[in-house]
Amino acid sequence: MRRLTPALGLFWMLALALLGQGPALAQLPQKPHNLMPVPAEMRWGQGRLPLKKPLRLQLETTTDPASVTAAARRSLARMQGPAEPASGPLLQIRYGRLGSPELFEEERYSLRVTPMGVTIDAPTSLGVLRALATLEQLVVTDKRQRYLPEVDIQDQPRFAWRGLLLDAARHFMPVAVIKRNLDGMAAVKLNVLHWHLTDDQGFRVESKVLPRLHEVGGADGYYTQAEVQEVLAYAAARGIRVLPEFDVPSHATSWIAAYPRLASNDSIYGVYRSFRTSNIAIDPTRETTYSLLDSLFTEMTALFPDPYFHIGGDENDGRQWRRSPRISAFMRERGMVKADGKTVDKHLLTTYFNRRVLAMLQKQGKIMVGWDEILGPDLPKEIVIQSWRGKKWLDDAVKQGHPSILSEGYYLDLNYGAAAHYLPDPLPAATTLTPAQQKLVLGGEAAMWSEFADSVILESRIWPRAAAVAERLWSPQASTQDVPDMYRRLGAVSVFLETVGLRHRSAPKLLLAEMAGTGNVAPLRTLAEVIEPVKEYKRHFQGMVYTPQTPLNRLVDAAPAESEVARRFGVLVDSVLLTDARKPPLSPVPLRQLMRLRAQLLQWQANDQQFQLLLVLNPALREYAPLSTQLSAISTLLLERINQLQANQIPSAAWLKAASATLKAAQAPAGQAELALIPAARRLVGI
Ligand code: ACM
């Protein structure tokens, strides 16, 4: 949504009034608001519903309203505190029946705010939950009052599957952390928690039939079945489904550590203490493997009520199968060989394995989900494919008739900016898929793998960026193309999300305070605000070997995945460049922008001296001294550049050469973090 200036808004209102398009709800086409995901349809009025007196809840339904009442009370408590007895305007809620998230039931709702009160209408209780999430975001606090703006909203999701993957295997995530994230998900209308519960580094659910799985695989943390139930109930109350993932045949070293008979060779494994792809895989040829899996899946499919069950299936290069004479012989005997008739083909053994697992799940009435590696020519069509290696896999899967989910483009652990996750679309406008194939695209999932996120910093790696993915998956395509406006609303939603309980903003601050100790935290904060962890998987390859035991309490861990300060700096730089500052006389606006730039750069330039003082108190910060020094150096450079712009001076070749060298040096990471200002600095310098 593009922001209308007040004057322009007034113009439109007058114009529309003159056209007789009238009154009750002026047909304002757009209005600045902080809603995320943006609703499908909004008509804004001019009135307000002041929140001086607490809203009074009134439910009209023939079905058991307990869960909806509880949800409405939670929303009201967040909006207006624990205000009892409520004596203000009515919050009227009407819905037809209880909606089950497991069945993808309707989430459509209408929400109307007038100066007299609020009404929510929805076919199911799920729609009511989504409406309440919108209502909470509508609250405006200005200098004089808190109020709800007059509005009529008709809303429904674009995709039925809007997920967030939480990886509790690489670092165990306590129940409280999962619950906080469920609250965050509900606030932005995400409706599937994909709970990655097992991996090489951990098996995180209590198994009563195979207890060594959690005793050995979850020695450093697992969920009891009672805790799982608690999470499931918490999610269900928020209209969120829980999709459990038990990753096989690879990513399962913790299982093999517990039950060595699962191994594809004669090695003895411990729970994996590295984050490198292991390519260790369980043995798909032994009947004992299937009897163990059958016992486990019988237990786990009963524990998790969702009709879908994720079996992973990713990243098995087949080396252990090829290298095992016994497994290779099994493959040859069954013709699992490539076209040359000799070389064993892991894909065929994978399909064999998947079919056996599928039969177990079908026996329990489950629909199997797997990562895109499991896609093969003979895979039964009901299997859902989750694409992570590339969008091509999503398209291939639906062309082969599989329902599919997109995760490529939504990997939050890669530390890209929100825009990078906002723009990928499961069904881009230019899609070549047929309407029938398009129907098979269920939606998408943001994924937060937790190699570099423990329970303290997890939220700061997920939020607020996951809200951008949530909007991509909920909102109409046509109203989700404006990236600057997305960032404007993301800033507001980020603040809002802490009020629902997330700690994505407060946790990094605490880490910084801890690092500063008795010293001044300000220079540390200034540096932390303009650095980001290195992107993609580079953190594994910069001289430091991480294990699940490596503390995540360094500056890189307190740095945001996307620096908001650097992003705003880039916006400021671009606005200066757009005004063509080289053509004097400068108008007042670019002058003001130049002054803002100058003030910022002076602060950064001076920061290094103060940062150096902190190193005496906390020598562990020394690894980040190069970034602090480079921040100062590029600030000096950019201050010179601003002088040139203001003096209408063309930089000399020698100056440009030196500038280029400075920027190159400033690009070097330190402590697996990097300055986020370099692209904007390059634009300002013009190289
Ligand atoms: C994956 O990221 N290996 C699914």
Strand order of the largest sheet: 8-9-12-13-14-15-16-17
Helix count, per DSSP? Answer: 25
Helix content: 40-55%
Radius of gyration: 28 Å
Distance between the termini: 33 Å
What is the tally of beta strands?
A: 19
Class by alpha and beta content = alpha/beta
Q: Mind summarizing the main beta sheet?
A: 8 strands, parallel, barrel
Oligomeric category:
single chain
Q: What overall geometry do the principal axes of the alpha carbons give?
A: globular
Strand content: 15-25%
Bound molecules: acetamide
Low-confidence stretches: 1-29
Mean pLDDT: 93
Structure description:
This protein is of the alpha/beta class and 687 residues long. Among the domains are: 15-155, Chitobiase/beta-hexosaminidase domain 2-like (Chitobiase, domain 2, 2-Layer Sandwich); 197-213 and 234-374, Glycosidases (TIM Barrel); 508-685, no CATH class. It contains 25 helices and 19 strands. The protein has an eight-stranded parallel barrel with strand order 8-9-12-13-14-15-16-17, surrounded by five helices. Helix 4 links the parallel strand 8 and strand 9. Helix 24 (653-666) runs antiparallel to helix 25 (678-685). The longest helix has 30 residues, at 588-617. The protein is globular, with a radius of gyration of 28 Å. Residues 1-29 have low confidence and may be disordered. Acetamide binds next to loops.
